[in-house]
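Proteins fold reproducibly. Take a tokenised chain:

. . .
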Amino acid sequence: MFKTEIRILLIVIGSILILIGILLPVFSKIPFGKLPGDILIERENFKIYIPITSMLIISILLSLLLFIISLIKKH
């Protein structure tokens, strides 16, 4: 029983890594980090970057994805 669970876990992790590798070039073209509402403060000795809008969009997308997954698992 334990060996089959590890096999399934490794297959799922591998599939996720392959999917990330395939989609990474596509997602790199999206202008996250340069959206209106992202704060950039530059001074002589330091630079502060606060991606507020980008993080809100990512949070909403992840929440929707997890909600859809939970609906699928219930049925």
Observations:
- The chain is about 65% helix and 10% strand.
- The first helix runs from residue 2 to 27.
- The chain has two domains: 1-30, 31-75.
